[in-house]
Amino acid sequence: MAGRSCGVTLTLLGVLLLGAARPPGGAEAYVLGLSQRTNITIVIKPGLLPLAAKPCYLIVSGKYVNMLLIKSGDRKEFFFSCRDPETRFVTEVLRDIDCTSVPCPFGEFELRPLISMLPPLNRTFIWDVQAGKSTSLELRFSRPRLRQIGRGESCPDRVTYTISGHIGATEVRIGTFCSNGTVSRIKMQESIKITLQLPWFDNRDYSSFSMSSQSSIKRLCFIESVFEGEGSATLMSANYPFSFPEDELMTWQFVIPAHLRASVSFLQFNNSNCAKKEERVEYYIPGSTTNPEVFKLADKQPGNMAGNFNLSLQGCDQDAQNPGILRLKFQVLVQCPQNESNVTYEVDLSNERAMSITIEPRPVKLSRRFVPGCFVCLESRTCSPNLTLTHGSKHRISFLCDNLTRLWMNVEKTISCMDHRYCHRRSYSLQVPRDILQLPVQLHDFSWKLLVPKDRLSLALVPAQKLQQHTQERFCNTSFSYLVAGAGPGQDLYFGSFCAGGSIEQIQVKQNVSVTLRTFAPSFQQELSRQALTVTFIPYFKEEGIFTVTPDMKSKVYLMTPNWERGLPSLASVSWNISVPSDQVAYLTFLKERTGLVCQTGRAFMIIQEQRTKAEQIFSLEEVLPKSRPHHHNFWVNISNCSPVSGKQLDLLFQVSLTWRTLDMTVILIAVVGGGVLLLFALGLIICLVKKNRKKKMNKGPAIGIYNGNINTQIPMQPKKLPNVQKDNDAHVYAVIDDTMVYGHLLQDSNGSFVQPEVDTYRPFQGPTEDCPPSFLIPYSKVPTVKLTTEEPAPGFSPESDSEPYTFSHPSKQDGSDGNTDIPLLDAHEPAETGE
After folding, report:
1. Do 461 and 321 share a structural domain?
2. Where are the alpha helices (DSSP H) in 529-659?
3. Cα(434)–Cα(175) distance, rounded to whole angstroms?
């Protein structure tokens, strides 16, 4: 019945089409006339003109005009001067409906005049309806329902609905909508304005909505969103992206099937500057004992809600001088409940300090299909796509997600010690707590931020299993790895990525460092149980890092400088302490001939030092790198950078390989021949001594040494070598002396027995077995040199045990020097050779 009365009313208030005819010349003419009793206005005006388009005009009564206005009671005949007017002009049909004086045209709105009678232009139909202050107007949208879009977005079919209202004389834009959405009803208080935009090729004769009158809603507007299955809806506050009206209330009602669950996420929001009251959102949730549940815009919003619920946005009285902007854009996601939604996990961080856990979605490619959301719920009610748990309390969480592999977890923990006296030699184990490993979400990163007092302490990282550095020549093919990088402002040094199964026993770093455990597969938990990393606070040293490497025969060891592909920082120095077994030989090989480095100030060099012989080789890194050569003992590799020219950087990649030590055949033959000669000489000497002893036994009496001063001691043919010796005196010649016979009484004690000599035992050396790394503050040399040092330690040197860190010190002032210990940056002289 209402539909029939509506049709009759609209027919009476519609457009009276008077006719159409074709003018001379074949151009199509249009004749439009409006009844006197209608309240409709038609405007034909230029739209967005195409570039470089020829002029096109309306021809009315033989005159060229740009715009045509047709009011109630008017009749106009016109045609266009071009053949494509749809690209030049648009038509607006405006109808004012005053329900305060006449009954409102309730029911479905029809398009009047009919589309078929209007020129083929892009058309905009506008209905501006005014009602009483105690009355609300409700728009119902039949299928397809509406989907709200943001400013600047367009609808695929170019059919657009815009809904507005009024607060006094100010127009408030509720939103712009396309077809195929969830919005089924919109209520406005006192007045409503509907705009329908149709493209010129759309010949529909219906509006897809109807209007009715309702009681007062005592708020700006009310929007109903209906879900029939899984899906999502994005909605915005009035006037978005501009400010929501001051001290107004707006409500959304969501109709959710009973077997589904809904979650709310705020995508973007801003708060205004409130002078009175407070901005907030309120939820009416079925079954809640605390309705309405009030949240701030910055709070985590409810999730995992079953059944229908309401969401309201309440503004405040804004500061007149600086009102600010209140706006909200949010998403409602509706999906089937999962098994995990009924499982609650407890994460106990009450005993942790400076630790936080963030659960968030993995980065994925966007898809046009509906993808169920993944939410983390705190206490099963406050749900959001990401959640951060802080230390100091226990947390109960659950998951609303169809596939938990779409989420991952990042953890950060800070270990700091600012009192060097308390922290010295203290150790901490970097292990992942069990509460975290028990969660059904994969751990992506666990970062330990290690902080030490500046210039007081350094750090040593010791793994349970030796580590391998990830390089292009040898990848880390494990389920997790350690990323070591500088931590703190200005400390962007990246030491590298390391995994188990290598030759690195220890990594020492000078300053604050971040150690990140990054996982690549769920199986990392099994491998992690066999791997642990211990950090120890050690005495401060000046180098950026020291690596302790113990290679083996199984594979080559690849090592590279920190900040790979970005370059070692200016004036930084790094060392590698490489061990060589006694029965093997190590070969150090650089994988490129030159570094490509060009220094702007200072010099870049490399020192290779044998730790046993202490022989040093010094190479300029601006020149050709050294060829591969054998090392029979433990040795150091020290690389020190200069301040390079822009665009040049220091990146070095080298390998260490071991082979069995072999002896040269020439050396073996010489040793055999020499050993035979020595054996024959020893046999001859023994025979001579035996014969001489037999002759002594034949003499009577004990052998007594007789001095004969008459023997000539002059060397033949050299009379002037000993000028002070008496030529004819035999008194200085001795016969054989038997010490036991002559001095034997001196070896007897008071009882007449011989005194045995004292015998001592060998005590092994308990001191350091290797030297400190070579000093990086040395004079620059163009050519490799070998520097031999004495076995005695330098004055003031305090030996340390093997576990002590090696530090670099400035060269001490020697006798005869001028006391300058700076690096001679521009010194290009050859080093002077020193004699013994």
Report:
1. no
2. none
3. 49
